[in-house]
Structures are given as C-alpha cells and as structure tokens.
Amino acid sequence: MTDEDSELMHGGIVNKDLAQLRLKPNLRGYDDLRKTFKWADADKLVEWFPNGKINSAYNVIDRHALGDNKDKVALIYDDGEGTVQKTTFEQLYRETNKFANVLVKLGVKRQDRVFVFLQRSTELYVSFLGAIKAGAIASPMFPAFGPDAIRDRLLDSSAVALVTDSELVKRAYQVKNQLPDLKHIIVVDKADTEAGEISYRAEMDAASDDFETVHMDPEEFQFMLYTSGTTGKPKGVVHAHKGIVQQTLTSRWVLDLHDEDIYWCTADLGWITGVVYGCLGPWSCGVTQVGLGGRFGPDRWYKSIQDHRISIWYTAPTAVRMLMAKGDDLPAKYDLTSLRVLYSVGEPLNPEGVTWALDVFANKPFHDTWWQTETGSILITNFPEMPIKPGSMGKPLPGIEAQIVDENGDVLPEGEEGSLVIRPSWPSMMRQIWKNEPKYNEYMRNGWYYTGDTAQIDKDGYFWYVGRADDVIKTSGERVGPFEVESALIEHEAVAEAGVIGKPDQLRGNIIKAFIVLTPGHTESDELKEDIRKFVKSRLAGHAYPREIDIVKSLPKTRSGKIMRRLLRAKELGLPIGDTSTLED
Ligand code: PRX
Questions:
Q1: What fold does the segment set 473-573 form as a domain?
Q2: Which end of the chain is more exposed for a tag (fewer CB within 10 A), N or C?
Q3: What sign has the CA pseudo-torsion 428, 375, 224, 276?
C-alpha cells in the first residue's frame, strides 16, 4: 500500500482525523497528562471498601450488578457452533457468588491457590472471578497444556483446587499423585462424577447466590499466572488486587472503552492478555464483552465481528498476518462497519498489518500495544488520539517512565538500541515471583525494572521494539521457555541432549526449533522426529513443540555444561557467532 491509497497515511504516518471519529477518545491531551497525571487520580476509577480495602472482582462484577448496569449484558458467549449465550452483570454476580460459596464450603481459605483449567466457556469466567471474590488467588491455565506443564504449575504453587472439564481432567490425573496439596477437583460438565471429583453443577445448584465479596488488602493477591523465562521451570507471576486500578485505567485510556462498545479480546484466559483485557479491565468499565469458543478461523472471526456488532477488537499480530494471508475478498463479504478501534499485542506488529487494516476496515488501523505478564497492564501503546508510526509500539502511559539503558542502567541517547526498562513501581506491577525472591530480584537492577526486551526511542518519543535480550521464544505471540521444551525433549528415550531456539517465521513470528543429539541405538528418520514432536505436544503443551528438529552430533556448550543457544541461533540464521571464549571445545 502506498501513501496515496489511504486518506489517513501521509509520509509513512497514520494521522487521525479526530473530528471524524464516531466517539471522542477517552484520553485527550497526552502531553499535558504526562506532566500532570498522578496514580492517586486513577484510584477514583474503582470502588473501595471501608478502611482502604478492595476486591478486584467486586469492581469487575458486583458494582455493576448492584447499580445501573444490572441488566446489561456482560458476556456474549458464542461457542462458534451456533449457540450464543448472553449473561447479564446480575447473572454473573449471582453465579460468581455461588461459586465463591462452593469454595468456602470446601474449606478453601484466603489466598489459597485455585486453578482454572477450562476451554473458553461461561464457567471459565465464573470460576475465575468467583475464586477472586472468595479471597483465593485464582490462576487460569491454557487448555493446550499437557501433564508436565500442569504438574509444574500446581506443584510450585501448592494449589488446593482445580476447576476443569471431563476431557482436560484426564491430563491432570496423569500427574495427580505428584500433587499432595491438591484436595479438590471440580468438574464442570459431568453429572456423574467419579470418586474424589466434585460436581460443579450439583454444588452450584445447592449454593446460595448471596455472598459478601471478601474485603482484601490492596496488596493481597488476586491472581497468578505462570510464564516462561530463559532458564528453569515456568515462574508464578503474582498480581495484587490494587492492579485493578491500572487495569481499569488502561481499558479506558488505551482500549478507549465507552459504555456502548461491544468489545472482543481474542486471547485465551490462559494468557495475561485474556485475564486482564478479556475479563478484568473491560468489565470493570462495565462494557459488554464477546467470548468466542473454538479455534482461529478467518471466516468465523469476521462473522463474529459482524454478528455481534463488535466495535473494539484486541488481537495478536500472528492472527492479523493469518487474516492478511487470506486476502481482502473475504472480509469484503462481511459487514464490519461496527468496528471503531483495533489493537494488537504480544509480538511486533508489522507495518503492513497496520496499513492493511486501514484498507480492509475502512480507515481503522491496528494500534500496537506493549506489555508483559509481569507488568499487569499495557505500559507502552499507540493511543487512539495519536498519529501512528506503523511498526512502533507507541508511547508510555502517563504515570509510566520507560527508558532505553545500557548495562549500567545509564539512559542511552535517542535512536540507540539498548535494554527497555521501566521505573518501578506502578499499580499493576507483579508483586512477587511465587516463593522465588531471587528470580524476582533478577528483574530489578540499577533502580530499573528490566523487561528483557531491547528497543529504541525515536526523536518524537515513539518506542520501537528490537528483540528479546534473552532466549525467551515468542511463537504466535505465546511465550515459551526453551528450557521447558528441552526438558520435555530429553524425557523421550531417543533424545540424549537438546537445545531449543526460536527461528524467525513470516507467519508465526517465530517457530520453535530443536537441535537434538540422539541416544545410542537410535537413528535419524522422519518417523522418529514426528514421534518426538508428538511426545512433546502430549507431555508439555499443544503449542510448545518443536516444528523443526535437526539431529546433530553434539551441541555447543560452555565448560560448565550449559548449552549455548546463542551459537545455535547464530549458526541457524547465518549470523556472526560472537564471543566463544567460554565454549567447551
Ligand atoms: O518480548 C515482548 C513481547 O512479549 C513479551 C511479553 O510476553 P507475555 O508476558 O506473554 O505478554 C504478552 C502480552 C502482554 C514482551 O517482553 N511483546 C509484547 N507486546 C509486544 C511485544 N513485542 C513487540 N511488540 C509488542 N507490542
């Protein structure tokens, strides 16, 4: 697309004609707000109990159900197969009350860990929010996870309860004997539960729909989510109730949610985007959300926008690229005029994605947003009122100081590449890596929070993503740790050693690539590689398996035996191999 193709594109910049917007952006006057905004101003966006207590779920559900939004539809759940279920704020209030009562009856205590392992469904939202109401720490798990991933999370957090369905529970049973603290397995879709299982339906039917949402200290925890780093098992990123302040603020200022919006976040609740912007933030703003069941499909997605008259859409670059690859004729078959503002997150959004949207969605560009599981809400973004520089992540939220620094924490001049850091702290920042203070401390250096990303800032203050400073892999926007995949690989009898990297891929951002040394007696074959792939899929996760496998004679290692993934990556991509002084031989 050239500049002339769109009336909004000039000199490579997407300019906004604010007078033409259907609704005025909630955030106006960014430059002034950066100077004047105080976090205490945002505290007024949520309701507090006496003595400074709070509960995020009260703000997400109760305050609407007990006020003017009582009969407003909170959730339009479309299973993608013809059934659409609408739930009002009041219904969600009563259901979450019931679920909180179920947990209390089971003896679940304040700040106990309750895991929710469900496909997208009304029960997923009800159990997640019901657990938070009861004062528990709720933790959703991505439904693609296999037994190893489930064990790692439930074991590390000493989870006491698991809410799941009759299919997914089978994976939990494979590791249940390794989980001594797991007392309750609640199954949502079985009338006849087996010994040791609790029937969600029976308990919900018997439970009262009255519950007084537990008053929490703002620093007590509302949810935790496991995420991957370069080394070790996934780490439990813990978020406090206070986070709802910023989750609400960003839903207004960034996602620009207005009362009349119909909002759709395509992320699964097993990821931070799904938790914060597919549940907490938008409902805290009292907005109607759409949940679409089933898998990605261009037809189904466009149809969802058309059928539900979606106005605000938050998705991921891989999805945008997949839609682009399907061509422009397909969206032309649907009425997509309800769309108002579009957003993406999770990986770099190609400039072509921004401009393609201008063309296909009648002058609505994608707005890239940047944040992380650890940051708890959007920190850097393209705001609706601002011109977009396609390819840029935008500018920091008022209240957020973001910089590019060198190894000493010294701020680098504009245009120079370095570590992206944020000045602690902000209301939605993680409070803890679950029971792992050294891991938490690794993020904090020189008075900054190190994001693990590298980036640069241009002369106008726009941030540009460069890459990861570590070995974390983003594949289709999902975060995968190479160590977890390597650990799963070496459980296979044919694998002696494994090194895993992200390999750039046009569609998925990166794919997972494994280099493997075979155990004696095994020889390379396509069948063996396929068997290894299936093994990782079934043990670890359906999305975190190596699409490509190379069998090698040996792996580059440091003298202390650490696999040098940097060298594997350099060799794969034909890059300079850099310093090899620590190499084994
Ligand atoms: O590398 C950055 C990338 O995703 C990482 C965070 O992953 P996760 O915790 O799974 O959270 C993703 C959704 C909030 C970041 O360190 N990332 C996120 N947003 C962007 C991005 N990379 C480039 N551009 C973005 N907009």
A1: GMP Synthetase; Chain A, domain 3 (3.30.300)
A2: C
A3: positive
